[in-house]
Amino acid sequence: MKKRTYSNPVGTSKFTGLLLVSPFLLGFLLFTLYPFVSSFILGFTNYDGTRDAHFTGFDNYKTMLSDSSFRKSVWVTVKYTAILVPLKLAVSLLTAILLNAQIKGIGIFRTAFYIPSILGSNLAVVIMWQFLFTTGGLIDQLTLWLGLPSVSWYGEPGNALFMIILLRLWEFGSAMIIFLNALRDVPKEYYEAAKVDGCGGFRAFFRITLPLLKNVIFLNLVLQTIAALQEFNAPYMLTGGGPMKGTYTIGMLIYNEMFRYNNIGFANAVSWVLFVLITVIVYLMFLITGRTRKEKP
Amino acid sequence: MKKIIASALLLTVLPLYACGAESKKNVTPPDGSLDKCTIRFSWWGGDDRHEATLKAIELWEKLHPDIHIVPEYGGWDGWTEKVSAQLNGGTEPDVIQINYDWLVSFSPDGTGFYDLDLLSDQLDLSGFDKDILSFGTMNGKLNAVTVSLSGRGLFYNSQVYDKLNASFPETWEQLISLGEKFNNYGIYPLDLDNQSGGTAWYLSVVYVQQLTGKEFITMDGKLGFSEADIKTAVDFYKSLEDAHVIRTIKTRTDEDGNAALYQSPEFINGNVAGCLEWGSSIGKYEMLLPEGVLKAGPLLTDNNGNSGGWMIKPSLLYAVSDTTEYPDEAAAFINFLLNDTDCAELLGTTRGIPASSYAENHLESKGLLTGLAQENDHLLEELDTVTISPYMEMTQMKEFYNSALEAVSYGTMDTETAAKELYNSINSYLERITK
Question: Which of A47, A134, A240 sits opposite B255 (nearest CB)?
Fold first, then answer.
C-alpha cells in the first residue's frame, strides 16, 4: 500500500499557531473587544453622533436613577423574564417528553414544533399576530363565539406584554431540542427497573427524569433568562414598546436612545447596566443552585 | 500574558480616541467632471413615490450609462433610525432624501452634509426662491435643497360622507359636532395618530396657534407656548376623543395593532373617514381607495373665519453625504431629480409640488399639476401660514407629545398634569440641544 504524505502549507515556525488563530483574534478584537471597551467609555460621555463627545463622569448613570422610562423598562423586563422563562421551560420540557416517544412519524412533529423558533419575530409573524389579536381577529371571534367578553390585547399594557410572552412561548423549539437530546441520553433501563418495582409514570418523571435533567434544566434556565433580559425584537415589531410603555423593555430603551434620540452616551451606559444586571442574575442562579462551590480534588 | 491583555486593550481604545479627536471627515473636493461610478440614493415614501422614483432612475441611467444608481427605499416608520445609524457609522448613501429636522439633528453646525454651494457646476439652483433655499442652510452652508414645500391638510372619504349626508367641516365646531352624527353609525369622521407621524399633537398645535396667534416653537428653538397654551392643546385633543371625532388611543391600538393609519383596515373599510396628512404624502392614502374618493377638505377656522395657525415646511430635502467620493456625480443626479423636465413628468407630485420653477412650470404646462397634493397646496396658499420650526419634528420631541396625549387618553393623568410635564420636558430638552 502506498504511503500517503501530507504537506504543511503554513510551516512550523513559532508564529504558525498565531497565524492559525489570527482570524478568530481579529474578529474578537474588532467585533467583541473593541465595541465592549468603546461602549464602556462612551457611557461616560454625552456623545450624540454629531458633536464631539465630552467626558461627563457618572452623569448618565445618575440620570438613569431619575428617568421614569428607565425605571419602567427595568420593571417591564424583569416582569417579562419572570413570567416567560418558567413557562417556556415547562412547555418545552413537557413537549420534549411527548416527542421522545418512539412512534411512527415523530420526526414530522419534532420539525413542526421547532419551526416557530426559526421564524423569530419577522414581518409575517407580526401580521399573523395582528390577525389573531386585534379587535375582530381570530381570538376575538373565538371568545365571542364562546360567549366570553372581548379582550383588549393590544390596547391594555398588561395584555400586550402577555401577547409578546405568548409569541416567545410559541417559539420554544430551541429549548425543546436541548431537552430532547438530554432525554434520549437517559438510560431506558432506569425506567424498566422502576416499572418492575411498581413505579408509575408520574413518579418516574419526578424521581428519574427531573433529577437526571437537572444540569440541562439549569443550562436552559440560564440561556432563556439571558435571552429574555435582552428582549428587543418582539416588542419593537408588535407594539413599539406601548401602550403606555407596557412592553418597553430595556432593549427597546437602548434602541430608542441610541438611534431615535441620538443619546449615544446614555444608551451605552444603559447597555452596561443591562450587562451588569444579566451578570448578577446569572451569578445568583449559580449561587442559589450551589454551582459556585469548587469541587474537592 | 499581562502584556498581551494590555496591548489588546490599548489597540481597542486608541482607535476610539482617534475617531473622537478627528471628528472632521475627509471631504472629497469636486473635480468638475462626471466619471464612471456607482452612487447610492436613499428615500422613504409610499408605493407611489417608490414606483415613480425607480422610473426616474431608469431614465437617468439611460442618459448616463456610466453612472449607476443603487436605490435604497422604504416606508417612514424606522427610516430615521436606519439613516441615523448610517450617518453615525459613516455608511450613508451618497444622495440622501432628508427630513427637515434632520438638519438640526445631524448637522447643527453645517458640517454634517456636503456644502452644496461647492457643487454649483453640476447643481443649478437658479429655479429656486432664495427663501426656499434658506431652509436647507445650516450655519451659512447649503446642506440640502428643498424638494417641495408642504403642509398638512385634511382629507376625507367622500363616499362615507355622502352616504351619511354630511359635509366636510369648515370650522372646529363643525368638526366636533360631526362626532355625534358619525357615532350613530360606529364611524369616525377623522383619525389622528400618535405614532411616528404625530398628527394628534400637530392638529392641537394648529388649533392653539390659531387661537393665540403664537408660534409653538420658534425657528431658533425656543418654546413659544406658555404652559396654559399647552394645556389648551391637550384639552382640545381630549375633546376630540370625547366627542367621538377620533378614536381613542386604546381603540386605535386594539383595532390596528402597531400599524400606521394608511395600513389600517379601518381606514380602507371606511370606518375611519378622514385623515390629516402632508400634501406630499397623501398618495399612499389615495391609492387605497377607489379613484376620486379621497378628497381634500377645507382647512379649519374658528367661527369668525380666522384661518391662521396652519403650518408649512419643506416636505423633504436632498442632501449629499460629506463622505461621498463622487460629489460631482451626486450633484448632477440631484440636479436631474429637481430640474429635468422629463424626470419631473415621471415623478409628478409624488414628493409634493416641486419647488424648482423649471419642474413646476413644466408640470403646469402639461396639465400635470392636479390631484390632492395640488389642491392642498392651493388651500394653504390662501392662508396666512406659519413655517414649522425644525425642532418641532425632532423624534425626542414627538416622544414627549405622544406620551402626554397617551397619558390623557388612558386617563392616567389629568390634562393639567400632562400639560405641566410636557411643558417642562420640552423646555429642558430645547435648552439642552440649543446650548
Answer: A134
User: What is the reported pTM?
Assistant: 0.86
State the residue for C-alpha cell 420636558.
B425
Is A235 part of a structural domain of the chain?
A: yes
Is some CB atom of chain B closer than 8 A to the CB atom of A129?
yes
Structural domain span for residue B365: 32-149+313-376
Domain count for chain A: 1
Q: Are residues B226 and B297 part of one domain?
A: yes
- Please report residues of B whose CB lies closer than 8 A to that of A243: 249-250, 253, 406, 410
Q: What is the pLDDT of residues B167-226, one digit of tens each?
A: 999 999 999 999 999 999 999 999 997 766 689 999 999 999 999 999 999 988 999 999
Using the Cβ of B61 and the Cβ atoms of chain A, whether some distance falls under 8 Å is answered with no
Q: Which residues of A touch B13 (CB under 8 A)?
A: 37-38, 41
Co-location of B226 and B372 in the same domain: no
User: Looking at residue A140, which CATH number applies to its domain?
Assistant: 1.10.3720.10
Whether residue A47 is contained in a domain is answered as no
- Provide the number of structural domains found in chain B: 2
What are phi and psi for residue A148, nearest 5 degrees? -95, 155
**Surface of A (153-182) touching B: CB under 8 A:** 153-156
pLDDT (tens digit, 9 = 90+) per residue, B359-399? 999 999 998 887 888 888 889 988 889 999 989 988 899 99
Q: In this complex, is the C-beta atom of B249 within 8 Å of any C-beta atom belonging to chain A?
A: yes
- Count of pairs with CB atoms under 8 A, one residue in A, one in B: 98
Give the CATH number, domain containing residue B362.
3.40.190.10
Interface test with A, best of B258, B424, B432 (most A CBs within 10 A): B258
Does B141 map to a domain? yes
Helix axes A34-42, B2-21, angle to 10 degrees: 60
Contacts of B106 in chain A (CB under 8 A): 49-50
Question: Does B395 contact A at CB distance below 8 Å?
Answer: yes
Give residues with Cβ within 8 angstroms of B294, minimum separation 6: B155, B156, B157, B158, B282, B285, B286, B372
Residues B281 and B340 in one domain: no
CB atoms within 10 A of CB B435: 6
The mean pLDDT of B221-234, rounded to a whole number, is 96
pLDDT of residue B413: 95
A12-32 per-residue burial string, b: 16 or more CB within 10 A, e: under 16: eeeeeeeeeeeeeeeeeeeee
The pLDDT assigned to B3 comes to 57
- State whether B129 and B251 are in the same domain: no
Q: Is the per-residue pLDDT at B422 higher than 80? A: yes
Q: CA-nearest residue of chain B to A154?
A: B254
Asked whether the predicted pLDDT for residue A293 surpasses 90, the reply is no
Smallest CA–CA distance, residue A33 to chain B, in Å, is 7
Which of these ranges, B10-24, B119-133, B399-413, has the smallest mean pLDDT?
B10-24
Residues B223 and B102 in one domain: no
The Cα of B258 is separated from the nearest Cα of chain A by a number of Å equal to 5
Q: Lowest mean pLDDT of A116-130, B152-166, B257-271, B353-367, name the range.
A: A116-130
Judgement on whether residues B179 and B296 belong to the same structural domain of the protein: yes
DSSP notation for B13-54: HHHHHHHHHT-S--PPPP-SS--SEEEEEEEE--HHHHHHHH
Cell numbers describing residue B398:
414627538
Q: Are residues B402 and B259 in the same domain?
A: yes
pLDDT mean over A185-206: 86
User: By residue range, what is the domain housing residue A133?
Assistant: 53-288
